[in-house]
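[Discussion] Sanity-checking designs against the backbone

I'm trying to build intuition for which residues belong where. Below is a structure token string of 870 positions. I'd appreciate it if someone posts a full sequence so I can compare it with mine line by line.
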């Protein structure tokens, strides 16, 4: 570019974060920098080359001092122009022409838009279609024949309201709507990622959510409890502990955790990042996590906003032990009064100290065993080569060289070439017959040097720790060595390595005094464990050490930048925020998130409720109310709903009543071609959109066909803690066919979802899932045709029909239609069904008759009319 020095342009972002911005004032500057605005990134030509005019513009820009366009008010002082950042103001209800159609204000907002477009709403659905829609929407189960009969018999206008009230009062309601929230909260019963450790108490959070919906817990309180319920007073003033509040913080605790990550600071801030991402999406509909490495590209969320929030979660206890081992220890919190928690923690310390004593004795014995063999490492390697490479026998080689046979066999197994690359052994494999002895000696010398290095480091630490303790100063951290430090040493020295004590006969190698000491210590440990308190536990968080947070430049935990204070995003909360001067800041964050003055909280949840009833939200990107998200199809209606939501005391059940008793919710899914042409994507809500049953609704409905669904509420269906062998059956999620409990209670192992869940679009439990996809693929149909579970359900229904002696075969067909499809069968359908059953191959036996009826029931179950709600 003609020697143009662009280094002068690098200062526009000092320190890689938030340096001073040069104001752009003149028309010439504005012309030059139009393509550099926040709204429109700089465009490079397809050829990758600048034209002469563009080169002249860049040269002129540099001559001006490389000014950068002023950041919009959005990013600077909270004066955001984003629609979603504006205060919620309840709008006036519009006038409409078709007064008779509108049953409430929701209808008036929709109808006003339709009339502007020359659209008419489709006619209402028939009563049974509405009943099936409402029943699945609120409780996730089909209506029973008795409920269908009662609704059809009730000719009053209050019949619809009575159904809604009955469904809202059902305990099944919380199970259905709690599952919606569990998607948003990315609920699962394991950490996922590498180790996939169980969250053994995750079910308490799931049950809390279900109960909160059943109780119609005010949504602002629901929000606040999930962030800081442990810091809030209990609803019951006589309660000694806010158990429900502690459990509610499972929202923060149950995210994905890569707990075997070696870089522990990175692990910690990855967890913080996951919490910021889920919190901002779930409650604010914002993608704040995009600002971890740089200012948000589109929304008024600078990196300092991100790290101001990170300082809150970084000051929160997330792990029981982050640094003590390669696999960090998860934190589980007792649900008990302070004095019981203190006794529990004291007991845990006694147990941990006793285990440490046992580990010290065992460690000394393991070290003694290793040190016996370490000076002969080279001999073991050379003899092992003769076994795995030349076909030698271990026993005579061990006898010849004075080696232990089992150690030699393990060394040969370890050194034997594998398919994967092992850098720590490449020098050994490269050795020739002439150099192999020298290579073995070098490995031995390196091994002995590592022993000396680690022992010296531990002795130095012991002296420093004793001096610090005597002076009343903090004890320095014990030196840690990980597998990557010296992989050869680690693997040779591992429990199953050549120099590791054989697990199955470990005690046989111990000295007599060590055996006696271990016998005493193990007895003492058992006594401590037997008398240890056993309070109920929760996957939760707690207050942690206060972190003076800094911006981590480019998101790198090892590259701290400028300090940030605990606060909330400036564009939402303004610059004049009350300072957070004590604690983690979670309580203050909870109050801000659950405030009626927060412009996003009510809008986001009102939109979710609309979406879960109508299939799409008024904002069709429910987790993104930022610039890249879609704008609402009906902004005034959204603000009206948000305002009504707050006015109702944040009652979700009141929102159900408002939406479900509208004419909009009664509309049919049957639109004329002209109506579909005018409103192709149904953005004017001129018709109701059919939807496929979600996997929980489908499986639970199948279990209702013969009344076998187990309606027991709550509790755990998963046992144990920790992880399992990578390919063991214990690591798999509970198979859905092995229980008849409602699907919401099936544990979700992130790394091994049940095939049924994946097949029917359950979603990704690793991230906040605002809206499930709906696929229509051949394996779904094959499941309905070939699944043993579906076959069993069809057979069970057929058996129930055949047992009913009050019915003839035509009556059985009609009853099957009512049970499976929740509608009456027409005369033609009855005739077709009877012809099908009569034509089924049979020898006249009862078994053959049962097979015919099972086949008929299965055809109904496999139909779209069963799988879809209109």
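Best answer:
Here's mine. Compare freely.
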């Amino acid at each position: 570019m003609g020697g143009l020095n662009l280094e002068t342009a690098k200062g526009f972002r000092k320190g890689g974060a938030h340096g001073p911005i040069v104001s752009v004032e003149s028309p010439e500057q504005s012309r030059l920098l139009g393509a550099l605005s926040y709204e429109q990134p700089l465009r490079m030509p397809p050829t990758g080359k600048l034209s002469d005019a563009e080169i002249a513009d860049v040269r002129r820009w540099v001559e001006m001092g490389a000014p950068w366009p002023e950041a919009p008010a959005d990013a600077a002082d909270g004066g955001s122009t984003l629609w979603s950042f504006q205060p919620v103001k309840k709008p006036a209800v519009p006038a409409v022409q078709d007064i008779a159609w509108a049953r409430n204000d929701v209808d008036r907002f929709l109808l006003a838009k339709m009339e502007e477009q020359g659209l008419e709403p489709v006619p209402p659905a028939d009563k049974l279609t509405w009943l099936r829609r409402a029943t699945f929407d609120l409780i996730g189960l089909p209506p029973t024949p008795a409920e269908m009969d009662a609704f059809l018999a009730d000719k009053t206008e209050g019949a619809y309201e009575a159904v809604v009230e009955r469904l809202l009062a059902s305990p099944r309601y919380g199970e259905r709507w709690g599952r919606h929230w569990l998607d948003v909260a990315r609920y699962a019963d394991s950490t996922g990622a590498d180790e996939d450790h169980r969250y053994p108490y995750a079910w308490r959070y799931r049950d809390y959510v279900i109960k909160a919906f059943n109780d119609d817990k005010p949504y602002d309180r629901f929000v606040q409890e999930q962030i800081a319920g442990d810091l809030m007073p209990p609803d019951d003033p006589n309660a000694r502990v806010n158990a429900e509040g502690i459990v509610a913080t499972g929202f923060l605790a149950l995210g994905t955790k890569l707990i075997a990550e070696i870089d522990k600071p990175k692990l910690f801030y990855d967890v913080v990042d996951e919490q910021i991402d889920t919190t901002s999406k779930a409650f604010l509909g914002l993608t704040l996590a995009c600002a971890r490495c740089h200012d948000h590209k589109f929304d008024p969320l600078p990196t300092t906003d991100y790290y101001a929030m990170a300082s809150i979660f970084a000051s929160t206890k997330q792990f029981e032990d982050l640094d003590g081992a390669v696999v960090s220890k998860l934190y589980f919190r007792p649900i008990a009064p302070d004095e019981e928690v203190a006794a529990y923690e004291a007991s845990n310390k006694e147990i941990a100290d006793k285990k440490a004593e046992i580990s010290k004795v065992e460690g000394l014995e393991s070290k003694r065993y290793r040190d016996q063999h370490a000076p002969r490492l080279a001999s073991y390697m050379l003899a092992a080569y003769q076994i795995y490479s030349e076909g030698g026998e271990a026993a005579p080689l061990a006898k010849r060289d004075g080696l232990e046979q089992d150690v030699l066999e393990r060394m040969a197994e370890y050194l034997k070439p594998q398919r994967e690359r092992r850098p720590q052994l490449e020098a050994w494999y490269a050795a020739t017959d002439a150099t192999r002895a020298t290579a073995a000696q070098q490995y031995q010398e390196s091994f002995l040097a590592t022993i000396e290095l680690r022992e010296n480091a531990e002795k130095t630490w012991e002296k420093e720790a004793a001096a610090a303790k005597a002076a009343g100063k903090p004890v320095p951290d014990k030196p840690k060595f990980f597998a990557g430090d010296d992989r050869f040493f680690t693997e040779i020295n591992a429990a199953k390595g050549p120099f590791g004590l054989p697990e199955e006969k470990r005690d046989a190698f111990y000295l007599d005094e060590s055996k006696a000491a271990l016998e005493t210590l193990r007895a003492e440990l058992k006594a401590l464990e037997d008398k240890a308190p056993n309070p109920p536990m929760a996957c939760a968080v707690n207050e942690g050490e206060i972190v003076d947070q800094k911006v981590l430049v480019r998101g790198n935990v090892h590259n701290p930048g400028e300090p940030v204070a605990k606060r909330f995003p400036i564009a939402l909360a303004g610059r004049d925020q009350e300072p957070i001067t004590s604690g983690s800041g979670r309580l203050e964050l909870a109050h801000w998130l659950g405030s009626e003055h927060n412009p996003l909280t009510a809008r986001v949840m009102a939109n979710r409720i609309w979406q879960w009833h109508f299939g799409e939200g008024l904002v069709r990107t429910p987790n993104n109310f930022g610039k890249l998200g879609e704008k609402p199809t009906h902004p005034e209606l959204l603000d009206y709903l948000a305002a009504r939501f707050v006015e109702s005391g944040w009652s979700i059940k009141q929102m159900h009543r408002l939406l479900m008793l509208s004419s909009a919710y009664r509309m049919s899914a049957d639109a004329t071609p002209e109506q579909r042409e005018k409103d192709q994507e149904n953005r004017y809500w001129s018709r109701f959109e059919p939807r496929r049953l979600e996997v929980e609704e489908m499986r639970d409905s199948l279990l209702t066909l013969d009344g076998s669904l187990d309606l027991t509420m709550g509790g755990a269906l998963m046992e144990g803690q920790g992880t399992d062998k990578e390919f063991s059956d214990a690591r798999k999620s509970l198979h859905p066919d092995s229980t008849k409990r409602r699907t919401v209670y099936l544990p979700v192992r992130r790394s091994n979802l049940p095939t049924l869940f994946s097949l029917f679009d359950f979603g990704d439990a690793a991230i906040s899932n605002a809206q499930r996809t709906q696929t229509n693929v051949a394996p779904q149909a094959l499941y309905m045709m070939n699944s043993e579970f579906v076959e069993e359900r069809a057979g069970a229904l057929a058996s129930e029909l055949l047992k009913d002696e009050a019915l003839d075969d035509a009556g059985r067909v009609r009853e099957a239609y009512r049970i499976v499809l929740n509608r009456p069968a027409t005369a033609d359908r009855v005739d077709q069904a009877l012809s099908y059953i009569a034509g089924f191959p049979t020898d006249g036996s009862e078994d053959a008759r049962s097979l015919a009826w099972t086949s008929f029931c299965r055809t109904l179950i496999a139909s779209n009319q069963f799988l879809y709600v209109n």
